[in-house]
Amino acid sequence: MAFSFIQITDHHLRESEMDPVHGMMTTHTLRAVLRHIGRHAAAQADFIVSMGDFVDPPSEAAYRAVMGRLGIRSGGAPAPGPLTITVEGLRDFPIYFMPGNHDDRDAFFRCLFPATAAMPLMNIRFEVQGVQFICLDWGVDAASVAYDETFAFLTDALQTDLASVILTHHQVAPVGVRWLDAFIAPGLARFWEIVRGKQVIGVLAGHVHLSHEQLVQGIPVLTLRSTAFQFARSDEPAITIQPPHYRFVTIHNGVLTSRVFEVPL
Prior knowledge:
seven-stranded mixed β-sheet, six-stranded mixed β-sheet
């Protein structure tokens, strides 16, 4: 059993594509990433996972404008999808969506997933070729919040023999940048207690706007640069001029491996 998918994250799209964020035209940079995916990776991948902060600031008008520009169709699919995207060489390509801290949950569900009732925390799971994907939501603040609801959902989801991949917008382990690591809720240590000894083969996150790889309890824990602007590896908040990344992930016989692609702008 083997399949592959692509992780992208932190798009920070505006209602107007001419409205910059930290000096970046985020629609332009995302389209460059999707064009690179279409040319170099889509033929070998089964779907894309978008890991949150889709629009910024969030509004129903912004979601609908962005969906129109990117050719995203909901098709009535329940959250987290797949929806389909048709843009930059991708045609009706499956894509799953998670919300980030910048996403308004009501507008997110109303526009992307009208068939799913809005929920304050999108704790949802789905299965692909015998692998369980667990989407965890730590809230709408820059710092994660250790919700009992999220821990209870994770505990229940891991009562299975299926290999599991955890998808989370907020990071769940330090990346070595003081101000970013301060966003980890102290109570999040419970997360690692719950996953210990379970069939978790990888944890993918966004939020930190930098690509980082480490093993925690033998589990690959992977973060990724934004498709928009990047944070510097400095103790104080700073934006750095670096190109975006996307991650090509393969699962083969219960083992997760990945490769990061850099997209020239």
